[in-house]
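On clarity, I found the account of how folds are encoded harder to follow than it need be. An entry of this sort, consisting of the sequence and the corresponding backbone structure tokens, reads as follows:
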Amino acid sequence: MSYRPINLAAVIGSVRNGRFGPTVANWFFGRSRIREVCFPD
């Protein structure tokens, strides 16, 4: 079966020091790279 690539993007609402947003974004993109059909931006 053929799959079309899925382009993913994440919008982080706050990137100030001590915020949790960048941690979640890094986890999300790390997990998305596992699948060969997902391409994070």
Remarks:
- The two ends are 25 Å apart (CA to CA).
- Residues 6-40 form one domain.
- The helical segments are 21-32.
- The chain has a mean pLDDT of 79.
